[in-house]
């Protein structure tokens, strides 16, 4: 993943935001929307594109574009930085390849310890019962 190339491919759009800010939000476009085209990106390899296409299927448009927006702050510049960070984090998280889990067995001593503890517990419970009268 080439971060600089990806940053150059981003398309930004500033729109008026809802939320806190009073009259300020009615006059300024502080909400930032970013779009990133996955299929046409040159910052990702073909295998990375396929992996992201599969993992981010619910977040992509039909054209394969990722759309994110941020209106957390009153500043357009801070919102832009936040949305860029969010996009890069999303890409990095979904490009991670999970380790393959190796099957393991408990050691003999651990098995013996567990069985011994079970027997002790059973003995303790059995000793609490009233004796059987035949």
């Amino acid at each position: 993943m080439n971060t600089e190339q990806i940053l150059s491919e981003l398309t930004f759009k500033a729109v008026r935001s809802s939320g806190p800010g009073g009259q300020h939000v009615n006059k300024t476009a502080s909400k930032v929307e970013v779009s990133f085209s996955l299929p046409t990106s040159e910052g990702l390899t073909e295998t990375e594109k396929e992996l992201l296409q599969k993992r981010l299927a619910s977040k992509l448009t039909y054209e394969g574009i990722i759309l994110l927006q941020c209106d957390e702050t009153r500043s357009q510049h801070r919102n832009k930085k936040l949305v860029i960070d969010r996009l890069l984090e999303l890409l990095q998280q979904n490009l991670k390849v999970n380790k393959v889990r190796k099957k393991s067995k408990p050691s003999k001593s651990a098995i013996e310890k567990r069985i011994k503890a079970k027997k002790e517990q059973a003995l303790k419970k059995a000793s609490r019962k009233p004796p059987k009268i035949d």
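Strands lie at 11-15, 31-37, 65-70. The radius of gyration is 28 Å.
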